[in-house]
Amino acid sequence: xxxxxxxxxxxxxxxxxxxxxxxxxxxxxxxxxxxxxxxDPYNRDNNEKGPLGTGSNEQDNVVAMPDRSQSETTGPQxxxxxxxxxxxxxxxxxxEDGSDLSDGLSEIANADKDFDPxxxxxxxxxxxxxxxxxxxxxxxxxxxKLLAKDVYSGFSEAIDARETEGHEMTTQLVGxxxxxxxxxxxxxxxxxxxxxxxxxxxxxQTDRDDKIIEGDDKQIDKITDIWTFSHNINGRDPNWKxxxxxxxx
Length: 249
Description:
7 strands, 5-stranded antiparallel beta sheet, two-stranded antiparallel sheet, alpha+beta, single chain
């Protein structure tokens, strides 16, 4: 009885175990060898294939690139180029419609297809800083690249006189208060633009004994310079050069 009873119990438990196994298998499934490998969060290849990357199948999350056919033009070699800004819009940033300045900028734009008023003003700002610093440092090489011959001659003579006396000049550009265009036009194929610079400077001169003889190393001076830049439209040199200077202070 006991041995038969024990056998019956064993058979019952074995049957229960088989049922549970079959149930779990139906839920969890079996490995086929094609399962996706676990993702390693420190693996660069896995991290780059996120919802916005090229490895994602989530098409709704892909960011579309701009349509170049609408936003760009094709260059002579087939490369894509950014469209040039509307020159009339650019001119309005610096001159009122119908003003002499506006007409002058339009004249330059018509004669020089590469002219961009905004780029010119950015270049004029950089040129101003480079010129005043080069003059202060006695850097004739830089001045020669940025100045017309007669203007360079005057700057060079002033530097020579300063050095002969053993004086040194120190200049610090604190910043620009305002930069505005005053005049523009074309004369004898030369485009000319006059710009007014209102700047804040610290500048002074010292003698051979390093004693300040002119200016103040702690005083900020408000300076107003009126400079005219010129560019030969037919020339090979695309750069503008300083052709005249005037100071209101």
